[in-house]
Amino acid sequence: MRDLLTTDGLGHDEATAILDTADELKRTLLGREVRKLPTLRGRTVITMFYENSTRTRVSFEIAGKWMSADVINVSAGGSSVGKGESLRDTALTLSAAGADCVIVRHPASGAPHRLSGWLAETRTSVVNAGDGMHEHPTQALLDAATLRERLGSIEGRRIAIVGDVLHSRVARSNVHLLATLGAEVVLVAPPTLLPHGVEQWPVTTAYDLDSQLPGIDAVMMLRVQAERMRGGFFPSAREYSIAYGLNEKRLAMLPDHAVVLHPGPMLRGMEIASPVADSPRAAITEQVSNGVHVRMAVLYHLLAGEEL
Amino acid sequence: MTELLITGARPYGEGDPVDVLVADGVIAEIGERGALRAPSSAEVLDAAGQVLLPGLVDLHTHLREPGREDTETIESGSRAAALGGYTAVFAMANTDPVADNALVTGHVLRRGREAGLVDVHPVGAVTVGLAGERLAEMGTMATGEAGVRIFSDDGKCVADPLLMRRALEYSTSLGVVIAQHAEEPRLTGGAQAHEGERASRLGYVGWPASAEESIVARDCVLARHAGARLHVCHVSTTGTVDVLSWAKGLGVDVSAEVTPHHLLLTDERLETYDPVNKVNPPLRAEPDIERLRQALADGVLDCVATDHAPHAEQDKSCEWDAARPGMLGLQTALSIVADTMVRTGLLDWRGVARVMSERPAEIAGLSDQGRPLAEGEPANLVLVDPDAEWTVRGAELASIAGNTPYDGMRLPAVVTATLLRGRLTAREGKID
Amino acid sequence: MAPPRGAAAPAERELLSAGDVARTIARMAHQVIEKTALDGPADRSEGAHDVGSADDAGPPLPPVLLGIPTRGTPLAHRLAARIEEFSGVAVPAGALDVTLYRDDLRRKPTRPLEETDVPAGGIDDRIVILVDDVLFSGRTVRSALDALSDHGRPRAVQLAALVDRGHRELPIRADYVGKNVPTSRTEEVSVLLAETDGRDAVLIRGQ
To answer: What are the Basic and acidic residues biased-composition ranges (chain C) (predicted)?
Structure first.
């Protein structure tokens, strides 16, 4: 594997290999005092975040450091246009400076694809750490790792993704990966927050959350960004919360084994009630710790093999 | 006076080859092969059975001068036009400064005359600074040196319905046409690509078809009430074709153009995230291009206009959202029309003359362009080899910028000669 | 009839039969018992190595066998079973994947990780016996020593290999060797085990 840009097109075997590696890494590191592997000694990983995201950046940074890579964080305030230097020039500079891998978060969908194209002649790999409304592949992989852990398997499981699907890169990456891994996905959202053409995705859709809950193995709650409320995607935060918020009453409607996931950061009281977020059914902190192992696995698969 | 004898040309690609004698800027005589007596001083152009058409007229070109001469000048754009078979182009008003006054429109006209390769007609802005707030001095521009015939805020929509109503009403006294860039801005905030499955999956903010259709419908109604002429720029959707059919059926004086890229390319191009494919309105889906082709053949869409839009390398070699919309078109338009309309049997070459020369000239009110191929008519002509093919190379096009989405593509039909009032402006791919 | 020129199929020869493999493992088990003094007093029976209480100042704990995947792992388990059979002492066995510690990762396509399974009692202050199928350059063992140090601090580390084919590139030697086989570098030695390959055998191929 040269780059990780999307889960769209990531094959079943490839995805499973990454998840298996993540599992093995987790087991290897479990209970160790020194959580450091020499595997990526001498490799340089650069995180390039054009959007703030402490959790994702830190997760990648820890992953790289636990693998003994040299991790350098470039915080790119504002857009490339605002900074004056083009994204292309920044990428070529970092590559020329010796980056083996560039991990990029960018507000423009497809920015990692562009990077990958510009760096095609170099030895620098590109990892998409979230691009616009497009994809966030490592989030989907860590969600899958968590589901495998909690449910034993993903094949044949029914998973609801609830909330602002329209703007969510997490939802897109999860739709592709879960479909590849054989899950049934139902997207639950008001019509204003479902993407155009969603009927061509490998999912079913529903407007009503309550009717979906009893048959669900896992529910992924998406964050509803405050700025969407001003756009009039739904009448009010209150009405949204009433219709789509995961509260204790709804938690009780889920089967006993069902898991609650949230990519964070959560808006407690909005899309998820505090007692639900803190309940043992919620796997939210496991998602975070699995995130490190999954990102280690991704770096391993990109950087540990022979140069392509 | 210079004389030119074109031997063995087939007017509109019909019938047996004939000889055409051009003298004093007009078609002096048309006769059977070898029948014409040309003075020994006459230059002879062997057409070898190629198609002879009236020179092409482009209602929609961005020549970038004044303001962005690093991407195109009136001179370089004129070369591209001549090489593409054009004898008249309309230069859009979104320059810097904006062509919203007679000073700028006069300047553009004069620079076009200096280049001397194609008639460059400035388009005047509808509103001051394209700001959509108050009308520009349309009367002064119309009656001034440039004699502006088309007004447009192209690049931006005259979105305010009251302002559009006033512009249409006012235009009736000047005998000019308002060309609308139909895009309801409230529906396209942040929009990057055709709203459809591909944009959704790939994470582009959608540009809904309804944003175009709602403005076209509104403007047709406003034009009808004002008794004004309306021209719709770069129609891109099936729904707009429906609206235009309906309006034309009601007798609304509306005309419409379609770009070559909307006849050929689809939002499949989004997969690459390469902004060379970014254009406004965006590339649509397969059913749209099918419908646009049919509507052009049926006459619901009147003509082809290039929306030739040069952009600097750095404005395309970036992430999609940061890129400027637009693509080169002057040198590829005829080939794309040959590919999408002639090869498919939707239009014959007489039809091509209609949609690329005659109708645009009528819409713009040009008396010396888009004329029949007949004795006494102005010798604005283009000779096309319909059987030849060529490979597009952005770097080899005459425009300063190289942003063509057809780079590397093999296209049919080659322009072998262009004549502006009897004078060769381009020949065998070179400026004469 | 001579084989076609230049297309000679590499000759394959059996170094050890299934019976040989079983006898070799049994012999190695005896050597381990002897060398780690498991044949001492009877109180070192099953359970005596239970490290449940830290203040238990009993006799030294039995060794831990860690196989290096893929085939070192079943070998370690077989060896442990033989040792228990012959000495009556249950010897914990597990697996130690060394992939993440290899120095040649960049020379081959990305390898999948194999299982690491350190027995519950851990390795601190115990003798660890690394078990591999073939000892060759010694680089795998070097990686294993690094991996081991990340899991704890053994009292001593020993090495058992079913086959030692020579050509060491590092100062490493085995404490227990099933069979020493002189080879050329280009020859290929493969160990087959019922658990992974359906049958037991050691083969040598090529010239």
So the answer is: 36-49
Do B355 and B405 fall into the same domain? no
Is residue B128 located within the same domain as residue B272?
yes
For every residue of B332-378, DSSP letters joined together read THHHHHIIIIITTTS--HHHHHIIIIIHHHHHHT-SSSS--S-TTSB
Q: Does position C76 have pLDDT exceeding 50, yes or no?
A: yes
Q: Which residue does chain A place closest to C113, by CA atoms? A: A21
Least confident span in A35-49, A226-240, B185-199, C157-171:
A226-240
> What are the residues facing B86 on neighbouring strands?
B56
The string of DSSP letters for A187-253 reads EE--GGGSPTTGGGSSSEEES-STTTGGG-SEEEEPP--HHHHHTTSSS-HHHHHHHH-B-HHHHHH
Query: Could you report the per-residue pLDDT of B304-346, keeping only the tens digit for each?
Result: 999 999 999 999 999 999 999 999 999 999 999 999 999 999 9
- Which of C100, C114, C145 would you mutate first to test chain A, the one with the most A CBs within 10 A? C100
Active site residue B368: no
Query: What whole-number distance in Å separates Cα of residue C129 and Cα of residue C32?
Result: 9
Structure tokens at C135: 């000892």
Task: List chains adjacent to chain A, taking adjacency as at least 3 C-beta pairs closer than 8 Å.
Answer: B, C
- Which element (helix H / strand E) includes B91? strand B86-91
Asked if C28 and C179 count as a contact pair (C-beta separation under 8 A), the reply is no
Residue of C101, C110, C115 lying closest to A301 (CB–CB): C110
- Annotation-wise, does B287 bind a ligand? no
pTM of the model: 0.91
Chain segment A19-56, per-residue pLDDT in tens: 999 999 999 888 787 889 999 999 999 999 999 888 99
The arithmetic mean of pLDDT across residues B15-22, rounded, is 96
Min Cα separation B271/chain A (Å): 9
Q: What is the pLDDT of residues B39-59, one digit of tens each?
A: 888 999 999 999 999 999 999
Tokens representing A273?
């009630």
Q: pLDDT digit string (tens) for A245-258?
A: 999 999 999 999 99
CATH domain A137-283 topology? Rossmann fold (3.40.50)
Q: Indicate yes or no: CB of A34 within 8 angstroms of CB of C150.
A: yes
Q: Please identify, among B317, B342, B364, the residue that sits at the C-terminal boundary of a domain.
A: B364
CATH number for the domain whose boundaries are C16-36+62-184: 3.40.50.2020
Candidate from B196, B273, B314 with C-beta closest to A196 = B196
- Tokens for B67? 């303001």
List strand residue ranges (DSSP E) for B134-261, in order: 150-152, 177-180, 193-194, 206-207, 230-232, 254-258
B195 to chain A: which residues are within 8 Å by CB? 196
CATH number for domain A3-135+288-304, candidates 2.30.30.100, 3.20.20.30, 3.40.50.1370, 3.10.20.320 = 3.40.50.1370
Is-contact B353 B14, C-beta < 8 A?
no
Q: pLDDT grade, residue A235 (50/70/90)? A: confident
Phi, then psi, of C79 in degrees rounded to 5: -60, -40
